[in-house]
Amino acid sequence: MKWQRSPWRSKGHLRRQWLVHFHPKMPQKVISRYRKIQSDRLRVVEGHETLQLLLDADVMLCDTSSIITEFAVLRKPVVTFRNLSPQPHMVNVNQAAGIGPALEQALSRPDALMRAIERHVLETHPRNDGRCSERIIAATDSLVARGLGHLRPKPPNLRRHLSMRRQLHYYRFH
Description:
It is built from 7 helices and 6 strands; from the N terminus they run ββαβαβαββαααα. It has a 6-stranded mixed beta sheet. By secondary structure, it is an alpha/beta fold. It is extended, with a radius of gyration of 21 Å.
């Protein structure tokens, strides 16, 4: 879920607009409930194109997802709820009552949080020159030209494979 600063005020307070985007595996029952309560302040955004949402939002509310890093790269704060691995560049809360204050804190963009976000961005995305796709294409072309013969084969990891099969209750072997 993302919380967007709205351009209009109501009764002297800045109103917020919730843009809700669910994970593709979210049960349709939950999504339907949110669709029913949509208003000018709560909008369910569907589809796979999240870039515009990331650009529009001032802060993101999320639990544990890779989209947190994508949002932080935009140098915007993220509030996480019961994150499995909270980091300094996030405002993490473990109780639902803490979400509102955490969002207000994030929207105020405190210096310490913004410095932590900047450090995270530099660690995860150090090349900010807009030429990443060009580097990827060049590396791919180089690999295609050289072939795969120079690469070592991946070692078999039977222990991991058996462990995963046990967790998934999948014992069929090919």
